[in-house]
Amino acid sequence: MNDPFDPAPDTIGIPSAPDQLDETATAAPPAPSAPQVSYAPVTDRRPAWAATEVDAEQAPRPTPERWFEPAHAEAVTGGWIPANAAPAPGGGGRGRGGLVGVVVAASLVSATLASMGTYGLLRASGSLDKPTPAPAAAQGQAVTTSQPVVIDEQSAITTAAAKVSPAIVTITSSGAVQNPNDPFGQIPSTGVGSGVIFNANGWIITNKHVVAGSSQLQVALQDGRQFNGTIYGIDTLTDLAIVKVDATGLPTAPIGNSSAAKVGQLAIAIGSPLGTYTNSVTSGIISAFGRTIQVEDGTQLRNLIQTDAAINPGNSGGALLDAGANVVGINSAVARTAEGIGFAIPINIAKPIMEQALAGQKLARPWIGIRYQALTQQIADQEKLSVSQGAWLQPASSSGATDPAIVPGSPAAKAGLKDGDIITSVDGTKITALSPLDDILTEYVPGTTVALDVLRDGSSITLALTLGTRPANL
Q: How far apart are CA 438 and CA 179, in angstroms?
């Protein structure tokens, strides 16, 4: 389990509609009708045959029934003309009808070409690809459109701070051994730290280095209440501890799932840096999973969440939250030689001991008794190994001495594991970067027998191993 983790939302404007085309600019003028000609004698000094086209132009013309939709027509020499139009005398109407047809045809071609040009310009500019705004249902009513969901990062942070801060405590220990001269600063000095209330009956999870060696604990809540605390138990696997205060009805922090966290997602840290600035809130992102650091005494802390949310001495034991205000990690360490590099223990690793405490059990972790290196593709390439995932049993150096990969008398020794073996799975669960050996083992209790798939000298074997109880001095 390599587990362990949105200013105001971008306002997506509704694009305006493309500029309306001036249809009158390209529409063809109405086709003129042939003049009404009477064939009855008229009281005119000039005979009907002397009428000129000028006279015809001055005559009133009927309005056509519709535009560009010819009614029933009769075929005449020279083309088609409306059936209800009388021919002009002397063949003049036939000539004008042909001319009108040419003008109409030219206008239609011109309008078509103009429309095609406009379409091309709109397509090239991308205007036609923009969504069309939905019409308002009625005046004064808001128009709702389908928009992408955007997480409001600022709102998430303020909501998380308001929801979880009451459950973050400041722990002051007395009688603890201080270590202000740590040159690396990977683990803040003990004496002051933070904690997370995970059960209303006074159960608090914090870091082991915050409370280890102390003779008295003072626990302060955000609302000003203070309680004397006692150490219920120390985790033998990680830098975690359980503290108990005699109180009920306390505010609690929601516990999340660190396995569901993703690199790049919002991370919110709450704690008491320097023991003075209580309930401080910082934010950043989850930078990586599966980090390993080595502390001053040579102890290695594995499978940590890396974050750039500011973590300072005093933040240890505080909460690392996701955007939903759920605890996904317990802040543990900071690299003082660099900026923006902090570490937290995934909450899923802490859950087993939290459950043991609530059940009144002694805190215990399963133990194999091995020293190993988590494989990566880079290590596999360098060492010419046939697999790139698994737990490679390798001797370790500490205090100037080399410790064997297999602890004498341990469950691993009894099961027949050897230096150089590569454990690839536990009870069928493959060991991967996202599911390391330590995480898999946290799902078991001491005394359970598991099947280990092992790669030895290029051959695969299966060994049965009964988990022991991890010693407190490891």
A: 29
The Cα 48–Cα 35 span in angstroms is 14
264: CATH: 2.40.10.120
CA distance 418 to 413: 8
**What pLDDT digit, counting tens, does each position of 401-449 carry?**
678 899 999 999 999 999 999 999 999 999 998 788 988 898 888 999 9
pLDDT at 424: 97
Residues 382 and 338 in one domain: no
Indicate if 245 and 389 belong to the same structural domain: no
Counting other chains too, the contacts that 331-335 makes at CB distance below 8 Å and 24 or more residues apart are 331/194, 331/207, 331/269, 331/271, 332/187, 332/207, 332/239, 332/301, 332/304, 333/186, 333/187, 333/188, 333/239, 333/293, 333/295, 333/301, 333/304, 334/185, 334/186, 334/188, 335/184, 335/185, 335/186, 335/293
If asked whether residues 331 and 420 sit together in one domain, one would say: no
Cα(272)–Cα(343) distance, rounded to whole angstroms? 16
Q: Domain boundary residue among 333, 358, 383? A: 358
Query: Are 174 and 205 in a shared domain?
Result: yes
Are the CB atoms for 370 and 391 separated by under 8 Å? yes
pLDDT, tens only, 102-157:
555 666 656 665 556 555 555 555 555 544 444 444 444 443 444 554 557 788 89
Q: How crowded is residue 124: how many other Cβ atoms within 10 Å of its Cβ? A: 9
Domain that holds residue 107: 23-129
pTM of the model: 0.61
Residues 252-268: what's their mean pLDDT?
A: 94
Residue 84's closest CA among 32, 34, 30?
34
Q: How many distinct structural domains can be found in the chain?
A: 3
pLDDT digits (tens, 9 = 90+) for 369-412: 999 999 999 999 999 999 999 999 998 765 566 788 999 999 99
Could you give phi then psi for residue 462, rounded to 5 degrees? Answer: -125, 130
Please, which residues have CB within 8 angstroms of residue 114's CB and are 6 or more apart in sequence?
25, 26
3-state secondary structure of 46: coil
Active site residues: 209, 239, 316
Identify the pLDDT of residue 176: 47
